[in-house]
Structure formats: C-alpha cells, structure tokens
Design brief:
This protein has a seven-stranded parallel beta sheet with strand order 3-2-1-4-5-6-7, with helices on both faces. It has one domain: NAD(P)-binding Rossmann-like Domain (Rossmann fold, 3-Layer(aba) Sandwich). Helix 1 packs across helix 8 and helix 3 runs parallel beside helix 4. Helix content is about 45%, strand content about 15%. It is globular. The chain contains eight helices and seven strands. The N and C termini lie far apart (about 45 Å). It is an alpha/beta fold. Bound molecules: NADP nicotinamide-adenine-dinucleotide phosphate (NAP). NADP nicotinamide-adenine-dinucleotide phosphate binds next to helix 1 and helix 4. The site of NADP nicotinamide-adenine-dinucleotide phosphate (NAP) has 30 residues, from helix 1 and helix 4.
Length: about 260
Amino acid sequence: MSDQLFSIAQQNVLITGGSRGIGRAIAQGFAERGANVAICSVNPESVKATVEQFASAGLTIHGFTCDVQKPTEIQSCAQHAIEHFGQIHSLINVAGVNRRKRAEQVSEDDYDFILDTNLKGAFLMCQTIGRHMIEHKSGTIINVESLNTWMPLKGVLPYAISKFGMQGMTRGLAMEWARHGIRVNSLAPGFILTDLTEKLWSDPVMQEWNSANCPMGRLGTPDDMVGTAVFLASKASAFMTGQTLYVDGGCSSGWNWPIPLQ
Ligand code: NAP
C-alpha cells in the first residue's frame, strides 16, 4: 500500500473465526495487503480447507484449531501463534455464534453456548494476547460486535447480551491498556450475508424489510468489513481507542418510519 498511514504490511495478525464469513474476508484482506495472518476456528476441517483455499490463491496463511469456549485451547492457540510470529501486533476477535429463540424459550445451554463463545471466549483471548502485548508495549485489538450492540433485535437476546458485553469489554480494556500502548476498538457489522445469516435472508419477507429499512438498501458482504478492520489496525486510527464503528449501510443512523411524505 502506498499510503503508510493505512499500511498493515508486515503486521502479525491473529484472527479468531477466520475460517468463514467475516473473519475469512478480513484474513484475506489483510494477507493481500502484506500482513502475516494466522486464523483459528473450532472445526479442524474448516481451518484446513480455508488455509488450502488461500494457498491455492497464492496466500500463505497459518491455521490453528481452537474452540474459544475452551480456555485451555485459547492458551495453546495463543502460545502457538506467539511462537510462530514472535510478536502479535493485532488480534481480531471475530468468532461468534447465534441461536434465534424467544427469550422465554432460551435454555441455559443456549445462553452458555452463545455467551461462552461470543463474550467469554473473546475476553480470554484478549487477556491472553493482551498480556503478550503488554510485554511488547504495543498492540491493536479489534472486537466484532453487531447492530445488536446499538439496539437489540427481537428473538436473539443472549446474542444481544453478548454483544452489549463486548462493547463494555472494548471500552474497559481501552481504559486499562492505553497506558501499555494497546488500542482496543470494535467493528459492528450490520446485516451481512454469511453462513450465520443465509437462512434468515433467504426469506423474501426479510429481504423486503431490509430493502425498505436499510438506507443503502442492500445486505452487506464480508468484504465490506475489510476496510474498517484495516483502518482500526493501522496508524490511521492511532488516536482512537474504546470505540465502536458501525459498518451497516446506515442501518443504525435512525428509524425508517412510514410517515407519508410528498
Ligand atoms: P459465520 O460465517 O457463521 O462464521 C463463524 C466463524 O466463527 C467461523 O469461522 C467459525 O469456525 C467460528 N467459530 C464458531 N464457533 C467457534 C468457537 N467456539 N471457537 C472458535 N471459532 C468459532 O459467521 P459470520 O456471519 O462471519 O460472523 C462472524 C462474526 O460477526 C460473529 O461474531 C458475528 O456475531 C458477527 N456479526 C455477524 C453479522 C452478520 O450479519 N453475519 C452481523 C453482525 C455481527 P468454523 O468454521 O470452524 O465453524
């Protein structure tokens, strides 16, 4: 990249949930811009397939299997990544899951599954890599939140709780770690077409609702997330920490109400 302000070249980056969807697009976007990228995700087949697909496209990306619900796996993934790179400059917490149910039907297992992955897993990963970044007195962490951080959607309460919690975590870590040269920010995607949401957005009623209510009138793509992640990992955002950037086609800008206008 010619503009050094936005350069992420030579950065060593660890991306959780990098095997599919948004994490995969960010991994590719970073690797194409000269970053050294490692991804991790829960399913070994998924990691292997993604690493191989990148390799066949000429991109060398390292892959680790890691279930972020399991603290011991977080420890060993972080250790492997640190051993592999020597220093990790950026951590991007993308791994996330959801189950859609009415609040009164959410089981304890649903709650734990979602919170342990989306929030506890991200916190333990921040803590583990954060200790390493503190030693090096520098680092950038990007947490992937959601439109649910701004306003909870009906039927996904544990997910919304996890993303509200993630925003609190982002701000709290920013407060504590700025003195160590570590910046912590969040990227909050809007409605993005991925494996996580494919079924939802195959419903014509949902498609119509999005066209009518999202100011930009379309679903986002995983590639739409890359620019903001690059910005948050680069010097271009050097005086920014504890912030959430919504990348949502304008969905969080306001309400679209049916007021009759000429
Ligand atoms: P996705 O396509 O379903 O991909 C999910 C990723 O998370 C996969 O790489 C998956 O790995 C990984 N993962 C799941 N459970 C894990 C675990 N226990 N440990 C480690 N990795 C795990 O989802 P996506 O739509 O790209 O979503 C990615 C993030 O963006 C999530 O945090 C989600 O909440 C957030 N987000 C998405 C949208 C949207 O509209 N899509 C909107 C707002 C926010 P495997 O391949 O190994 O299963």
